[in-house]
């Protein structure tokens, strides 16, 4: 075994992975086993012991925050030589490549990047143009489907060729015009960024070769969540080895010696199947890279054995997986704490009180605590309670800063200034603040641009030639164009340019004079954006407006995790999806109810249920010392209370690992679905009175008889009072959902 200071603090398998040379390397291992740590040490080792140059290294992480952390850690290990490495997300790396090579694909190097909201707006525009009924062909769904196609590297021509149904043909048509509009706007959406890089490599072998010569070491973290396009991208980037048949005949020449590839991941943590990520990348790695070496890591360094045993027990219920044996030598630690709350407010209150208690009794700081939930919307109640009890917190994800209207408006102005053909941004601010260019005027300019085959911006500049425009609108348009031209001519730092936009357009004055308290916070947000620009200027003295906009549009959810001192002081609220790769001493896993987590849409869908279970595994394994699992007996959903049964994942955690807190009536959680909790009995009592007839009080697992369908077992109960619905499994009669108040049903 090689001895080297960089290998201290690594176990033998981790060392093997760090020093491995040559063939592709796959590290598959459970959560907290040091995969990310291995990557970091491997980079440091390559640089200090194997004569690799920093610019030969490309390391792909899942978020910009993870990239920053990895860079910092390598920096600490080997010093400032690390600067020239590419440690970044797929998107950032591809954007860099595309900016350099944009001309080959017919773009300028200042192309715009459309984020999800922009691309949905564009798709909505396209659907309107195609006169599609939004009820039958929802633009959002079209947007999502186009994204899926791109993740599979299917372009619109191929999609059209494959289309069989009317719906598929319509989709392909929308895809084609959506793509045309993007190209006209000199823009790419998020999925294009990956797909076009693959296209670039495949169409221009010299470009591919250039990057293959450059990147001699390619590493990918969270490999289980790469989608097909990203998978092919890696193959293109690494280069193909020479391929011969068994008889030694050359099938394919290798142009450049393939780069060393090292990917790390955990099939059990694949949680983006809905985004086209596919664990087939892991499962088939060995097939696609026949000379690959696989290293397994089995020791978990993050969590107590109790937490790990819970995680192992839950994930072992998934059928399509390789069994793993993850262990920890950190001792059992405290038991997992379980809590059945009366409702979601009670659940949040429990969390707040527990955080206080831990602070008093165990010196736990709020910064060591994370609260996870399944959907973004769930954060609101925690926020409300935390504000009320004075507990400092930070929401990661959710209504993100960059999604706030005023922030997007200002960014849209900046984008138009950087790239006038960015029509979506242009039209977003055309009449913001209101300047008398109404929908009618906009439509006329659009018609003019279509007829003349000129970009929208040019049509605006030549508005006097557009027929039918009222003088008032025409003047407003002229003023608007003059304002933009004036701003474009100014050579100002980005932050000052942003100020000028706010002043010149009247945006700032409008907010300042409105008297609406919400506008005050809008102003704060705009000022915050200007300080983002100032920070950018300080960090990148040569950075251009285009660079700034790019950085802003690539900010991932996880980047808003507070860092430094802040991080010591505030509870982190986030969805389970955002939590990947992170660790916290104390974790609250909330909303463990069937229909919440696992999510409603996964019930009855075995494959989606397995993905939900992987999400539960991710959540549990973020915890280092203490884990709390909770559910609410009643939770409002869509404005009316629902009493969801306990999450099936709760029943999968071995009972002896959990210490149930509070009212004993709510404790026997294994049976909690059968026995009434206080809140359940309140709502059930209400529902019993419905319609003046005695309605059975049902829980999942109860046996019932129905006048028509016969014997059955209750699967779930949803809603309350006269809206209560029960789902009953009638065996060969199938599953039926019945309105309890009207169903001729009796409890046995
Ligand atoms: P995930 O699957 O959640 O991404 P991971 O496999 O990437 O987890 P890391 O985040 O690299 O795991 O490591 C988990 C924790 O264990 C970190 O705090 C890391 O510093 C620590 N760790 C990893 N290996 C060792 C080791 N050999 N000795 C001590 N601590 C270690
Ligand atoms: Mg990791």
Automatic annotation (TrEMBL):
Cross-referenced PROSITE patterns: UVRD_HELICASE_ATP_BIND, UVRD_HELICASE_CTER
Record-listed E.C. numbers: 5.6.2.4
Residue ranges occupied by any UvrD-like helicase C-terminal domain in the UniProt entry: 305-581
Lipoprotein among keywords: no
Keywords noted in UniProt: ATP-binding, DNA-binding, Helicase, Hydrolase, Isomerase, Nucleotide-binding
Region (Disordered): 670-701
Catalytic activity: ATP + H2O = ADP + phosphate + H(+); Couples ATP hydrolysis with the unwinding of duplex DNA by translocating in the 3'-5' direction
UvrD-like helicase ATP-binding domain segment(s): 8-304
Entries under Pfam families matching the protein: PcrA_UvrD_tudor, UvrD-helicase, UvrD_C
GO MF annotation terms: DNA helicase activity; hydrolase activity
Binding residue positions for ATP: 29-36
Source superkingdom: Bacteria
Keyword Hydrolase: yes
PANTHER family: ATP-DEPENDENT DNA HELICASE SRS2, UVRD / RECB / PCRA DNA HELICASE FAMILY MEMBER
Family membership noted in the UniProt record: Belongs to the helicase family. UvrD subfamily.
Protein name from the UniProt record: ATP-dependent DNA helicase
Gene: pcrA
